[in-house]
Design goal:
Layout: H1 2-18, E1 26-27, H2 29-38, E2 43-49, H3 54-70, E3 76-82, H4 89-98, E4 104-108, H5 114-121, E5 131-136, E6 139-145, H6 150-161
Parallel strand pairs: 1-4, 2-3, 3-4
Antiparallel strand pairs: 2-5, 5-6
Length: 162
């Protein structure tokens, strides 16, 4: 019995380690827009952040706690959109591992066209991060400009998951 428990513990540790991304896909705005529309049967939480943004890094543990709480719900999905530069992709991958990020992470490699795609996401977005946008059935249902606390994040999810 003891050996079974040890094997189970090793398996769970291995599974948890594999839950983290080892690669981060980079994409342009149009690809991200298609990716968001692809999840049209879910409540999709899209968080824009960067490894160099202190408020972004501060809120990520709460986002991971909430992501882990809802990840088994087939009507829920969280995507973290890194606005780090493409040349910093390895730093993003290392950050994912060090911070134990369990949500899907993509790198938006489209900084030069920020003034074009930012207003397409939200007309009131001034470009600052963090920003979190909630989509339900492919339609934007909530925009949060700035840091988002765990309670607000969970409440917004619960209000829109019905």
């Amino acid at each position: 019995m003891k050996n079974v428990l040890i094997l189970l513990a090793v398996f769970l540790c291995f599974t948890a380690f594999n839950a983290q991304q080892k690669e981060v896909p980079s994409m342009k705005y149009e690809d991200l827009e298609k990716r968001i529309q692809k999840e049209n049967d879910k409540l999709l939480v899209v968080n824009f952040w960067a490894t160099t943004c202190a408020p972004c890094v501060k809120e990520l543990p709460d986002f991971m706690e909430i992501n882990n709480k809802f990840k088994d719900n087939p009507k829920f999905k969280m995507i973290l959109v890194s606005l780090d530069r493409l040349v910093d992709k390895e730093r993003v991958i290392k950050f994912i591992k060090n911070k134990n990020l369990t949500a899907e992470v993509v790198l938006l490699d489209d900084i030069k066209r920020m003034n074009t795609w930012i207003p397409k996401f939200e007309k009131n977005w001034d470009g600052n991060i963090p920003v979190t946008i909630f989509y339900k059935n492919g339609q934007k249902v909530h925009f949060n400009d700035g840091e988002m606390g765990k309670e607000d994040l969970e409440k917004t999810i619960n209000d829109n998951l019905q």
